[in-house]
């Protein structure tokens, strides 16, 4: 006696992008009627890489005779929130508080707005980290 068993498999690909760092994931609605669940593959993607070298930003126009102020961001790993705070306070010691940041916006993960009239130039390492260089 031969028995043929037809099994219908459903495969669900789930991509989760949390807005906060954490290891626990909660679903708004539970997954119902699961007879078998197996994690086949798991990869962690971090869109914010490590700043490998010291990053710097210059405030002012280096092509003109305008005073320049240079601020630095130390090497290390930065979360999106921490990088936003670092950029907002980049020129605080020079009394230039015209930078604003916003995270997780429809136009981008990190939006930087310079409300002042002074030019800001980022070095290559910092520009590469922010994916604008």
Detail the topology: elements first, then pairings:
Layout: E1 50-51, E2 55-59, E3 69-73, E4 76-77, H1 80-88, E5 99-105, E6 108-114, E7 120-122, H2 124-129
Antiparallel strand pairs: 1-4, 2-3, 2-7, 5-6
Radius of gyration: 23 Å
Helix and strand pattern: EEEEHEEEH
Largest sheet: 3 strands, antiparallel
Indicate the mean pLDDT. 76
Oligomer: single chain
| Major sheet: arrangement of strands | 3-2-7
Helical content (DSSP H or I, runs of 4+)? 10-25%
Uncertain parts: 43-47
Number of strands: 7
How far apart, in Å, are the first and last alpha carbons? 69 Å
Instruction: Report the sheet-strand fraction.
Output: 15-25%
Which outline best applies? elongated
Count up the helices.
2
Report a brief summary of the structure.
The chain is 11% helix and 23% strand. The chain has helices at 80-88, 124-129; strands at residues 50-51, 55-59, 69-73, 76-77, 99-105, 108-114, 120-122.
